[in-house]
Automatic annotation (TrEMBL):
Key words, A-Z: Membrane, Transmembrane, Transmembrane helix
Organism of origin: Dactylonectria macrodidyma
Pfam families cross-referenced by the UniProt entry: DUF7704
Protein name: DUF7704 domain-containing protein
Domain DUF7704: 4-112
Membrane spanning residue stretches: 7-33, 53-72
InterPro entries xref list: DUF7704 (IPR056121)
Region of interest (Disordered), residue spans: 120-139
Domain of life: Eukaryota
Keyword Signal: no
Length: 139
């Protein structure tokens, strides 16, 4: 393993930890996870298809975390690590692109409104201990 310290901690520690957290939230609180993916609240119990998609996404988070930990910690060839980091780069660009497309450019660029909505929903910040209530949904 011949990586620099900062990329190692970002892609070998921080990113897998966040992916495992994403797996846990999607797996154990699928309604809450689905609620946090949209700017408008979900006021219904998740349909079986929505629940399955949420579980599958959580499973993908876990798979990518395991792959990342395996590649970063076992690869000794710089070309392998470089290829893996390139794949992450393209994946992150796709993630940002899909998010921008789904939210629309006005919502994406209006960070203050998004931040205020997130605090009202209790997604992070001082209210994060009190998750948003779900009318008709289960966590």
């Amino acid at each position: 393993m011949a990586q620099s310290t900062i990329p190692y901690y970002v892609f070998g520690v921080l990113e897998p930890a966040l992916q495992i957290l994403g797996f846990a939230v999607a797996s154990f609180t699928p309604h809450y996870f689905a609620l946090t993916q949209t700017p408008t609240p979900i006021s219904h119990t998740l349909l079986p298809s929505e629940r399955i998609v949420t579980y599958q996404l959580g499973n993908l988070f876990l798979l990518v975390a395991i792959l990342g930990l395996s590649i970063i910690n076992s690869a000794s060839n710089p070309a392998v690590i470089s290829t893996y980091l390139s794949a992450l780069w393209w994946g992150d660009l796709g993630h940002i692109g899909v998010t921008a497309w789904g939210m629309g450019s006005q919502r994406l660029l209006n960070v203050r409104v998004s931040e205020a909505k997130s605090h009202k929903k209790g997604l992070w910040g001082p209210n994060c201990r009190n998750p948003p209530s779900h009318s008709g949904g289960r966590a």
